[in-house]
Amino acid sequence: MSSLMANFYNPVYWHTWLGLGILRLVSLLPWSLQRMVAWALGATCFYLIPIRRFVVLVNLRICFPELTEAERRCIARRHYQSLVLGILETTRAWWQKPSKLPPYRIEGLEHLENAKAKGKGVLLVSGHFTTLEIAGRILCLNTRISCLYRDPNNLLLAKFLRE
């Protein structure tokens, strides 16, 4: 075992192992159950991570001053639920067989293929949306691409994402 891999068994990484294990198990559930898990976990995270909740609520207060505090809290809770759902969609991109991925349609793939056929490089730019991983996986199933991203600070998670 490499010293780097041995280091990943250090207690500082236990939460990462636990999180990846839970995500792997949840990814085996049917999508309808994954959605229920996402809604429950997202609502829970809203209450368990106060500093993030504070930031979200301040941003909503700035962007939507006409809404009541209750309306902004409702939007914030739904945001957390949507965020967890996006994370679970990411696990589908990582671990599901192509035949189990949701139905999809790619528009404009011919433009990418035409540029590549002419020997031209193509740069695809995306926002940092929760559907980024699943879109990348689907694109990889249909054409050859390379991805660029910044490694997370967590070395175990960075190693996991590279492999």
Order of helices and strands: HHHHHHHH
> Quick one: overall form?
globular
Total domain units: 1
Radius of gyration: 19 Å
User: What is the residue-averaged pLDDT?
Assistant: 89
Structural class: mainly alpha
Q: Kindly state the percentage of residues in helix.
A: 55-70%
Number of strands: 0
**Low-confidence stretches at least 5 residues in length (pLDDT < 50)?**
none
Characterize the biggest β-sheet: none
Number of helices: 8
Properties at a glance:
single chain, 163 residues, mainly alpha, 65% helix
Characterize the structure shown.
It is a single chain. This protein has 163 residues and is mainly α. The protein has one domain. It is 65% helix and 0% strand. It has helices spanning 3-7, 14-27, 31-48, 50-63, 69-95, 109-117, 132-142, 155-162. Helix 2 packs across helix 5 (69-95), helix 3 packs across helix 5 (69-95) and helix 5 (69-95) runs parallel beside helix 7.
Can you describe this structure in just a few lines?
The protein is mainly alpha-helical and 163 residues long. It is built from eight helices and no strands.
Blueprint of the fold:
Layout: H1 3-7, H2 14-27, H3 31-48, H4 50-63, H5 69-95, H6 109-117, H7 132-142, H8 155-162
Helix pairs in contact: 2-5, 3-5, 4-5, 5-7
